[in-house]
Each structure stands twice: as structure tokens, then as C-alpha cells.
Design goal:
Length: about 190
């Protein structure tokens, strides 16, 4: 049990992992520049006031807010209703800090948040974390516009995505890269 923290288990790096990270860092992968609108949709969130929710240490649903701490999660709440519940396996963004976080579980939100959903099949935690990095790199650009202008600025942003031999988003490559990066990040931790 001591080698597991938050679902992370320490795995040894393989030579393939090391090569993948080095090749990615050196730009030895095929990429294509596209507009975000080609891959993602933004959904406005119905926000809830904290006082309308029941926070407990054993509650199931994350309450996402505009904070940058704890993956944007201010705590966990009991089920309230389906109207305000936002589907997990998505990316949440706090509009005041312009920070993006992968949300695996269905969740509720506070004010000034939006949710981003993939238009493509195969979206999961590894893919979501990869795109969070790309979006967070552009956070200064998003912060420079008013909250009401976020959608258009986000949709028109260009990102470089790994592509396969047919020029399509290479999800397998992203999964392998994220797995290698996770192993690398955990190497020096005393789990």
C-alpha cells in the first residue's frame, strides 16, 4: 500500500520510455497545427453557491471553482441534482485564473467556470492531461481577454498536435508519451 499514492504506482522506466521522451523533447515527432475548435467544444456551466451544497469528507462529487489549488477543487459535495451536474472525462477551466484541469468524475461548479468536451472518441485522462498542458501554456493569452471573450479566443487558438501517418490526431502516441512522462516524474519520489 505504501507504493501507491493517489492511484500512482512506481514503474521502472524502459529504454522505449526514455527514447520517447527524448524524441518528443527534440521535436522528432510529426505534428500538425490546428485550431482548438476542430477538437473541442465549450459548455457554459450552471454555477452553484457554496452555501447550497453539503460538503463532507466522504462526499462523492468534486466542487470545482476558479482556484488554482488542488486541481481547482474546493472540496467534495453530496449529490444535489442532475441539472447542475457536469459530466466528467472533461476539462474544466476557472475563468479568472485561466487554468485548465482534467476532471475524471462528474462534478459541480462555482461561478466563472466552463467545461471543455472533446469532439473525438478516445478521450481519457492521459489525453486530457496532455491537452491541459497545451491549454495552460496559452493561459497568458486567455487571461488578456475579458471573460466574455474567452470562447472565441479559445476556439481560435492554435495548438500543435501529434499526428499519425494519415495526419490524424495520434491518440496512441499521446498515451504512450504521457505514460512515459508519468514514469519519469515518479522516479525520484519516495513512494
Amino acid at each position: 500500500i505504501f507504493n501507491l499514492i493517489n492511484g500512482f504506482s512506481k514503474e521502472p522506466m524502459t529504454e522505449e520510455d526514455k527514447t520517447m521522451i527524448n524524441d518528443f523533447s527534440a521535436g522528432k515527432h510529426t505534428v500538425k497545427k490546428i485550431k482548438v475548435r476542430e477538437l473541442f467544444d465549450i459548455k457554459n456551466n450552471l454555477s452553484l453557491d457554496k452555501s447550497s451544497l453539503n460538503f463532507t469528507p466522504t462526499s462523492e462529487y468534486p466542487y470545482f471553482t476558479r482556484t488554482v489549488f488542488n486541481n481547482g477543487i474546493a472540496g467534495y459535495v453530496d449529490y444535489l441534482d442532475d441539472e447542475h451536474l457536469i459530466k466528467g472525462n472533461s476539462i474544466a477551466v476557472g475563468l479568472l485564473q485561466m487554468q485548465f484541469f482534467y476532471m475524471s468524475h462528474d462534478f459541480y461548479t462555482g461561478q466563472f467556470t466552463k467545461t471543455i468536451f472533446a469532439k473525438f472518441d478516445g478521450f481519457n485522462e492521459q489525453i486530457g492531461l496532455f491537452f491541459c498542458v497545451l491549454f495552460n501554456k496559452q493561459s497568458p493569452k486567455y487571461s488578456s481577454v475579458l471573460v466574455r471573450d474567452f470562447d472565441n479566443t479559445f476556439y481560435e487558438s492554435e495548438i500543435e498536435i501529434p499526428v499519425d501517418s494519415e495526419g490524424k490526431l495520434d491518440l496512441d502516441y499521446i498515451k504512450k508519451l504521457m505514460s512515459a512522462l508519468k514514469k519519469n516524474a515518479l522516479q525520484d519520489l519516495d513512494l
